[in-house]
Structure formats: C-alpha cells, structure tokens
Design a protein that fits this description.
heterodimer, A: mainly beta, 11 strands, globular, B: 4-stranded antiparallel beta sheet, 50% strand
Chain lengths: 112, 113
C-alpha cells in the first residue's frame, strides 16, 4: 500500500521568506502527484498537478518538483504572504488503483 | 467555472439514523471519488467510480454504500450512523479516470450526536 509522508508537520515563517515543503511516497508506480491547499474546515483547492513523466510544474509563486525514482516531491513557495497560511497536502495517484493517497499535511503559518 | 457541488454542506444526525450525501461533479467529468476526513486527519479514501461503475474501494464501512448515476452525480448513503462517523466528507471529480487532475468539492460536514 502506498504510504505518503510530509515533512515538516508544521512550519512558521516570516512574511517574504521562500520555503520548501516536502512529500515522500513509498511506491514509485504512480500516475501523478497533486498538491492541495486546505484552509481550516474548508475544502481542498488544487494547486499543481505533476504527471509521472514530468519533473516540475510552476504556477505563479509556486513550483513543484517530482523525483519519481526516489519517491519525493517538493513544493516551493516564493516570497511567502500571510494569505498563504493554510495546510498543504500532497496526494499521490498510484497506478494500482483509482484513488489518491494523501500525505499527513504541512500546516503553514506566515507571520506578517 | 463550474466546480464540484456537494450537498448538503452541513448535516446533523442522531446515532443509528441514516444520511445521504450528494455530489455533482464538474460537467463532463466521468470519475468521482469520496473521501472522509476526521478532525486533524488527512483525507481517507472511501470509494471511487468511473463511468458509473465502481473502480476502487478503500476503507468504506459496510454500513455505507455509494453509486454513480446516469447523469454522473453520486450519492453516499450512510446507515446506522455512529459518533465516529462525524467528519468532513469530500467528493472529487476528474475526467478520464486515473491520470488527470482531480477537483474537490467544499465538503459536507456530518455531525452525529
């Protein structure tokens, strides 16, 4: 079974800093990996999708990378803002079934 | 742009009652996923459908059932509710099954008292 882990569990940074969130998964047989943002008690907002054949994806201040062979993905947030405060979840879509396996999440707080 | 619609947004039920959650995918999406998220937990996969057929099954209790209808909307039926069923239930949809981006709804918050 796919196991997805995110480090760190919580992160607090001052506004303007660049930061990296990490996601690791145990089974490299994946279709894609998706990063989500979740505000407290709210739904999941898709940030970036990386297909298994891709190395990275960028959207605005966000850049996600994927190293499938080592089972790792990173989400880079540039010039962080207080509005970036949320929980960030990575989800892996394994090719052994039709479901997403979620990581444990990183709770990010950006201090003004 | 249209998003995934879930109803109701909030639901309060008593123990042993039945609840039905509905999910309306993004137009033309043919795949639906259901997830359960307990307080402070990451989302746990319950079940998925592709083209109205069940495509994968996760940790869905036998008390729960789900289906995808001809118009691609899906319903999650939950019977004999227990206190531990209190959670946020998410539905997600995608087009073409496995290799495409999934979009999540805002969730239904179920509270069992």
């Amino acid at each position: 079974k796919q196991e997805v882990t995110q480090i760190p569990a919580a992160l607090s940074v001052p506004e303007g800093e660049n930061l990296v969130l990490n996601c690791s998964f145990t089974d490299s047989a994946i279709y894609n990996l998706q990063w989500f943002r979740q505000d407290p008690g709210k739904g999941l907002t898709s940030l970036l999708l990386i297909q298994s054949s891709q190395r990275e994806q960028t959207s605005g201040r966000l850049n996600a990378s994927l190293d499938k062979s080592s089972g790792r993905s990173t989400l880079y947030i540039a010039a962080s803002q207080p509005g970036d405060s949320a929980t960030y979840l990575c989800a892996v879509n394994s090719n052994t079934g039709n479901q997403f396996y979620f990581g444990t999440g990183t709770s990010l707080t950006v201090i003004p | 742009a249209a998003g995934v619609i879930q109803s109701p947004r909030h639901l309060i039920k008593e123990k042993r009652e039945t609840a039905t959650l509905k999910c309306y995918p993004i137009p033309r999406h043919d795949t639906v996923y259901w997830y359960q998220q307990g307080p402070g937990q990451d989302p746990q996969f319950l079940i998925s459908f592709y083209e109205k057929m069940q495509s994968d099954k996760g940790s869905i209790p036998d008390r729960f059932s789900a289906q995808q209808f001809s118009d691609y909307h899906s319903e999650l039926n939950m019977s004999s509710l227990e206190l531990g069923d209190s959670a946020l239930y998410f539905c997600a949809s995608s087009f073409g099954g496995l290799n495409t981006e999934a979009f999540f709804g805002q969730g239904t918050r179920l509270t069992v008292v």
